[in-house]
Design brief:
single chain, 60% helix, Serine Threonine Protein Phosphatase 5, Tetratricopeptide repeat, two-stranded antiparallel sheet
Length: 215
């Protein structure tokens, strides 16, 4: 769903860097036929980061990268197939489950997206990106209270995760009719992302709407 306010488009689905949200930082030097335990770090432009350590082989890394390239080109069928293979080979790797879920979402298969995110949370119940993405699925399927719980869990785990903060603000604003919640989280989001001029307009618009309702 998209809301246009004074020339700015407001979308209720917002993630770090699209489908590559947890895919770009699979670091470490891998030798053919061997497995290492590199740190997998996700970091956005404002310093939010998640580090995940797991054993991965060169073949898994290759398929992981190829899958994300395919999805970036909107070749969802190939990307999903490769990520399904990666999740089978390394089920403990949350990044692959999350990226698979995002790919399923882009292919409009929300049921499989939800299942992938629940598997990610089985592997790591404290992964804020997984909770944020699950909130997106819940929002898209009309389960707004559950979406709120998921965004709030992501923020409880990582208060600096301003992407989840923005999602929660928009959810409260557009779907839950909770202006107090919306204003609070818009303001906190804007503190973390002061370059987002649209957020300033959304805050002003919401305050204007609340003022009209009170009058």
């Amino acid at each position: 769903m998209s809301i246009r306010t004074r020339g700015f488009s407001r979308t209720s689905i917002y993630r770090c860097t699209g489908v590559l949200v947890v895919a770009l930082c699979l670091g470490g030097c891998l030798s053919a036929g061997r497995k290492h335990r590199p740190a997998i770090e996700t970091q956005d432009a404002n310093g939010f980061s998640i580090t995940e350590a797991t054993f991965i082989g060169i073949g898994v890394r290759s398929d992981f990268d190829a899958a994300n390239r395919a999805i970036s080109k909107k070749d969802f069928q190939r990307g999903i197939k490769l990520l399904e293979e990666v999740t089978m080979a390394s089920p403990e790797l949350c990044a692959s489950h999350i990226n698979l879920a995002i790919a399923y979402q882009r292919a409009d298969d929300l049921e499989l997206a939800e299942a992938s995110l629940l598997r990610a949370l089985e592997a790591n119940p404290r992964h804020p990106v997984a909770h944020n993405e699950l909130g997106i699925v819940y929002r898209r399927t009309g389960r707004f209270d559950q979406a709120r719980e998921s965004y709030e869990m992501a923020l409880a785990l990582q208060p600096k995760f301003h992407f989840a903060r923005k999602n929660l603000a928009i959810l409260c604003d557009l779907f839950l009719s909770d202006p107090e919640c919306a204003l609070k989280h818009y303001a906190l989001y804007l503190e973390a992302a002061p370059e987002d001029e649209a957020a300033e307009i959304w805050i002003a618009d919401l305050k204007n709407r609340v003022g009209h309702e009170e009058n």
